[in-house]
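Form 12-C: Joint structure prediction
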Amino acid sequence: MPEAPDAAIERDAVKVEPPPDPGDERSDADEPASLVPPRAKRVVGAPATFARPPSSSIPWLRIGRGALIAVALVYLGSVLLAPMGALVVELFREGIGEAAASLVEPRALRALGMSIALMVIALVVNAVVGTVGAIAIVRHRFVGRRIVNALADLPLALSPVMVALAFLLLFGREGWLGPVLEAVDLKVVFAFPGLVLATLFVTLPFTIREVAYVLEEIGTSEEEAAATLGASPWQTFWRITLPNIRYGLGYGLLMTAARSLGEFGAVLVLGGSIAGHTQTATTYIHDAVEERELAGAHAMAVVLACVAVCLLVALEWSKRKKQGRKEKR
Amino acid sequence: MNARRSAPRGGFGGIALRVAVVIYILLLVALPLVRLFEFGLEEGLSEFWKNVTAPSALSALWLTVWTGLVVAIAGLFFGTLVAWVLVRYRFPGRAAIAATLDLPLAVPTLVAGIMLAVLYGPESAIGEALSGIGVDVIFAQPGIVLALLFVTLPFVVRAVEPVLLEIDPSEEEAAVVLGAGPFKVFRTVFFPAIAPAAISGAIRAFGRAIGEFGAIVLVAGNNPARGTLTAPVYIFGEIESGAPHRAAAVAIVLLLVALSLHAIGRWVETRTRHA
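Section 2 - Result
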């Protein structure tokens, strides 16, 4: 390509311009797309295609663009946005006073407290397991490493009900561990330990995955430098590794919080949703619907949805932090 | 790669901690699944087969598979469309909509079910209008598909989005300069790039759909005569009615499907990451 050098220069000159708003229509691309435009014009027009599909200069495709946006919006609206709005509208229709009253009932408060307790346990355990497990999987070689790696990911792929059944068969009266538990007088099924197990199972992957991903990205040069300078392994961990993984770990912990508050199938089967004892926020909603106490169910659902929105905002923030760190490198 | 060898060893405390965590993962995940297989097969293969092929079990599995397929295919199409629209076009409200896309990951699935029941239920205006034209959504199969679409919404969109953003604009430019029409540009430039991502997203959506319980249980109701008993709801019902072997048989089938999908998904993921 003989013209390549000066084309490159022209292109660089054009780059200084801010890219045109992809939504607006430009008249310089009016010739049919099937013709090769004159060279000079082509180069000037080039940046426009960076952000805007060249096809939108054809009128009927402009209609196509509008139609695509409309279809996408109708789809998102009917599947996601309208149902969320409907729940809030319904809550107001039933009356905020009644909803608030049903939320401060002891049963609802106990259920909410139970969910928060499970979330705190899941956060503490998974902060340790996620960090240590990811370091073991990424930084060390041992027999069965690949199996552990695959197992750590597996809970995302399994149905919570199936998992709860497996735990029932393990810890129930006829289970493998049933006699042991009876000997030490520890109740797992339909008791708090069962809820903890169910929650820990479904939240296992989040921190491990995120931390392992960050560890792979950052490599070991900083850790090696610290070790060469005489830092002990623990010093290296606290001063190099942990600061590097903190946003990944934070992201994983936010996912853990969302999942532990929202888990339903596993805690229903394993905990039995005994009011005031093993009832969580989600199983409270389920029971309230069954008993036709819709105001209570809807109020608790809105509380959980609001928490989810807050967690999502925090997730977006930590995602941006994570990416910011990556780009700095 | 070479750096891994010289990772800090961590002394005795560090090694003990790592061994403990690895054992924790093995016990928490592998042991229950081994027990599930052992229990489901303890009465022999023929008994297991009889439990799987019982009419109610088969219809539950079939309902789960076809609703999962519908959701995966609809997700493939609409998910790609949503990603395309959000990446390529600018319109008012785009940022707000993009921000809500991850909500199904954070909202409890049971709450998703309640939302759909409120909007499309028989007591709502939309539900009434729909049943007026003979379409029941809640306590019927369309409700199951809607619930599954809600919980799997982000999978395809989030898989396709980064790929669309990374496509080199000069490829598209070159195709246009060479005279390709818009459909040909899509077919030759975009389709080959986004197809693997979209398909791996759809596989994940299918895997998620066949295991979903919370979003379905309130939307589907528990009346077997309505044909809304999916496999997870069936497992739950059999546990409650004291038939653990029947529950375990269907759970094993579901587990085998989930394990194969998981393996395929991981394989696709590693392939696309190394590509």
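Section 3 - Comments
Residues 1-55 of chain A have pLDDT under 50 and may be disordered. The two ends of chain A are 36 Å apart (CA to CA).
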